[in-house]
Amino acid sequence: MNKKQFLETLDSFLKRMPIEERQDIIHDFEEHFAIGLAEGKSEEQIAASLGSPQQIAKDLNATYHLEKVEVSATTGNIFRAMWAVIGLGFFNLLVVLAPFIALVSVIIGGWALGIGFIASPLLVLGNAVIFPATFAFFDLFFSLALCGIGLFIAIGMFFATRALAQGFVRYLKFNMKLVKGGLKND
User: Fold this and answer.
1) Burial class (CB in 10 A: 0-12, 13-18, 19+), 85
2) Quick check: is 60 in a domain?
3) How many angstroms separate the CA atoms of 53 and 4, rounded?
4) What is the mean pLDDT of the segment spanning 63-71?
5) Residue 157 lies in a domain
6) What is the domain extent for residue 178?
7) Gap between the Cα atoms of 108 and 80, Å rounded
8) Residue ranges of the alpha helices (H) in the chain?
9) Which candidate among 12, 18, 34, 126 keeps its CA 20 to 30 Å from the CA of 2?
10) Is 129 a domain residue?
11) Residue 57 CA to chain centroid, in angstroms?
C-alpha cells in the first residue's frame, strides 16, 4: 500500500469525524511519510510499519468520542463512544454492551419507579372521579406517602444517573486502554 492509498483509506474510515479533525490526522500521517522518506524508506515500508489504516481509524474514532463525552456527557455522545469502543474488537461487544444494558435497565427501572410513585395520588384521584363509591381516605394518604417516597427516589435517580454515566465513561476508557495494550505501561 502506498502513501496515497493509505491516506485515502484512513480518511474514508474517519468520515464521521469533523473535517478539521480529519485534516489534522491526515496531516500527521503525511508527516510520518515525509520523515520515513527522508530516512530512505519506501512508501510501502512506511505504510506497513504504521499498521492497518482501518484499525488506526477505529482507535482514533474511539479516542475522539471518549474525549467528546468528557466535554459533554449527553446520551448521544455516550452511545457514540460506546459503539466506537465496541468497534475496537468483537470481544468488546460482550464486555461493553452487557454492562451498558444492565446500567440502562437499572436507570430506567429506577426512574419508572420514582415517576410511578410520584403519579400515584393522581391515579387515586382519577379512580375516585371514575368510581366514586370506591374512594377511601386511606388510599389517598397512602398514595401521598408513596408520592413523597417517589420524590426521594427521583432525586436519588438523578444523582445515580449522573454517577453511573461518569462511571461508564471511565469504564470505556479503561477498556480502550486494555484493548490497546496500554495497561502494561501504567
Assistant:
1) buried
2) no
3) 12
4) 81
5) yes
6) 90-185
7) 19
8) 3-13, 19-38, 43-50, 53-71, 75-86, 91-130, 137-180
9) 18
10) yes
11) 18
